[in-house]
Amino acid sequence: MKVNYDPATDTLVFLLKEDVSVAESDEEKPGLILDYDEQGDLVSVEILDASRHVTETKKIEFQIAG
């Protein structure tokens, strides 16, 4: 999984599957875009105007629940 923040567009993208083409995109809620592959599996999640929705766009913490 990759996470990318683009300050020029203020877009935060969570890429769940690499090297997979997006076949369909749905704007689930305003500013929240879900991308799907040909099989209907979720490929990525995009948050538009991310700085309005995320506390710190340039800080990421990753945890594995255990």
Report strand %.
35-45%
Shape descriptor reads globular
Q: N- to C-terminal separation?
A: 19 Å
What is the tally of beta strands? Answer: 5
Number of domains: 1
Stretches with pLDDT under 50, minimum 5 residues: none
Number of helices: 1
Secondary-structure-derived class = mainly beta
| Mean pLDDT, all residues | 92
Strand and helix order: EEEEEH
Main sheet properties: 5 strands, antiparallel
Rg is 13 Å
Percent of residues in helices = under 10%
Q: Strand arrangement, largest sheet? A: 1-2-5-4-3
Task: Give a written overview of the molecule.
- With 66 residues, the protein is mainly beta.
- It has one domain.
- 6% of the residues lie in helices and 41% in strands.
- It has one helix spanning 50-53; strands at 2-6, 11-15, 24-29, 32-36, 42-47.
- It has a five-stranded antiparallel β-sheet with strand order 1-2-5-4-3.
- The longest helix has 4 residues, at 50-53.
Features:
66 residues, single chain, five-stranded antiparallel β-sheet, 5 strands
